Amino acid sequence: MKRRKFISKTTLSTIGIISLWSFDKEIFNNPNIKITLTPWSLIRSGYGGIDPLNIDLLDFPQVAKSLGFDHIDHEMFHFPPNLDQHYINSINNAMELAGVKSAIMLTGGKGDIGDKDPKKRKDAIATYMYWIDIASKLNCKAVRNVCGDYITIPHQEKLNYAIEGVRKLGKYAASKGLDLLIENHNGYSSDPNWMIALMKGVNLKNVGILGDFTNWILERNPDTFYPDPYKGFKLLGPYIRAISAKSESFDKKGEETTTDFKRMFSILKGAPDFTYAGVEFFGNTISRNQGSINTRKLIEKVLSES
Fold first, then answer.
1. Nearest to 11 by CA among 86, 94, 62, 67
2. CA–CA separation, 47 and 254 (whole Å)
3. Which of 139, 205, 278, 295 is the least buried, fewest Cβ under 10 Å from its Cβ?
4. CATH 3.20.20.150 fits 16-305, yes or no
5. Residue 158 contacts by C-beta under 8 Å, 6 or more apart in sequence?
6. 78-125 confidence digits (pLDDT tens)
């Protein structure tokens, strides 16, 4: 694979990272909150797709470090097909050289672990077991998955299938020492009460929620949103272990214009297991590098002021 270099000239000395280890325990129950960079912030195509930045996955750890991140997430769609141990070793070596660590493996989109069809559900679970194995080899702490984002069967019926699928996948993740995090990802999963019922039904210590700031579409055509995302986060808080801090644009003061980060992070004080704050910049009006830096700085700011 030809490696294309896109290493930012931004240095750690000019970024001014705020040490998260200094946070008072009274601010958050977990004082060691880690800010991670999600690949989609910089790489917006799947493997083999055309992306104008052309960042090679093996360069991503160094790019992330140059933007001020010590932890990175991974996205299954960015990996090459026929993944082998040599490539996994190459990624681990790249992370070691850059001085960054793995956080979460983001999976989903290749089958539904809550599918009504038993065979499809079984096949989806097998697919994500494979990615749990990859996540383990990359020293990730958790795997993210989705279910309930397509409304094709009644609420309770979908919940029953999702509980079965999430429990099976969660048990496998536990055998590898990993958490399984289900994301609010539209559809039933954007109904906090449905997600809470899912967590209670699964009832595994290593299963929790990855809360996304903006995925709140309950129905399509026309789009119908959960009315209050801040209330949604408050309800999900006891189960949230990681977040996707989505960002798109910023005002002159560095505040994100679509989500009140200060309010969101204040709500997250009620999330005792919250550990990973994932930067997911998807805007286009400024560079992806700058958007990622702005989001990181904003998270650091609201954490220090909480």
1. 67
2. 32
3. 205
4. yes
5. 114, 116, 148, 151, 152, 188
6. 999 889 999 999 999 999 999 999 999 999 999 999 999 999 999 999
